[in-house]
Structure prediction request, 408 residues.
Amino acid sequence: MKRVAVTGMGAITPIGNTVNEYKQALVEGKCGIDTITAFDVSGSKYTLAAEVKDFDPVQRLDKQVARRTDRFVQFALCAAQEAWEQSGLEGNIDPEQLGVYVGSGIGGFNTFCNEYEAMLSGGPRKVSPLFIPKMISNIAAGNIAIRFGAKGPNMSHATACATSSTSIGEAYRAIKHGYAQAMFCGGSEAAITPLAVAGFGNCMALSPASDKNAASLPFDKRRGGFIMGEGAAVLILEEYEHAVARGANILAEIVGYGSTCDAHHVTAPDPEGTQVARAIKQALDGNETDASKIYINAHGTGTPLNDKTETAAIKLAFGDDAKKLHISSTKSMTGHLLGAAGAAEAIAAIMAVSEGVIAPTINLLEPDEECDLDYTPNKALHTDIELALSTSLGFGGHNACLAFCAVK
Prediction:
């Protein structure tokens, strides 16, 4: 089996529009949550979100591309561009050996809502001919392939909030088993719209808090739901020997992936956490490391059921060693990026193994008795980490876990 390196990373997030900005904000414990500006929230029970700030697609993309793409595609293209530039793959990869696995949990929801309103007000003739190619959820992957001439395997996975972790894991497998030499992989989401907020709110998933510092509260006793976020994160994975041969700067190595399903409920995780634990064990297979040297970027949504379920799953996977682990939820800062969450959190995991910095769980002030592990409250921790995991759980029961280590 082939080894797989990470040679590029790109990010557009509520706390930074480049990877370096994002990582610095994580270390500082910056909160990206505030009152929604995308639409009028008066009369809504849910007024907070983690929006991407100061993003002008025309300044970062070709004007025609910006005009013909949904916001989630714009995010994905910008994150992919940053990852591509860092990777140094330009001119160093056969296009037929370069693939794209970039997904979205929802796709072009802004476009969907806008075009539906156009039809209601003006009839079918008012619907843009660009409606479908702007809206469909695979179109971020398609646009990335077009932009970079990637003619290898191309798929858009959709596993709800596990989407981008699934995409990274499947890209890892594609390279490991010889189907490609390099892959763009990750996810993108831009669904902060009145309809999406109402939908998530009415299924009791969102926090109704009005204080941004008391809203996204993973593992805290006061938690009452997640806060919607938006953004994109894209990694470039590359066959290890190919990367070494061309003198690439290898950021980390991906060494494990687990994928399971609860087969339990459409929105709620199985409270026993057995299948989450199994995904963690799959990612750990062959990566035996002292638990005190392991970091887990937890899914940590801040919903009452998710956090205690995930805690139970970690205990099932690690037994008595669970108390030694370093854990945190960066959703306390970014909100929940839905289909982009796993890839953004993978960057935080890579930061832990490559730079020895664990991002904190901010605003963790009242620990829950059922969430009794070390969640790195409020301040970043500088320590030596040998293995970093990133867990993701999605509606439909999808579970994914990724494992990274520093270059050996």
Remarks:
- The chain has 14 helices and 14 strands.
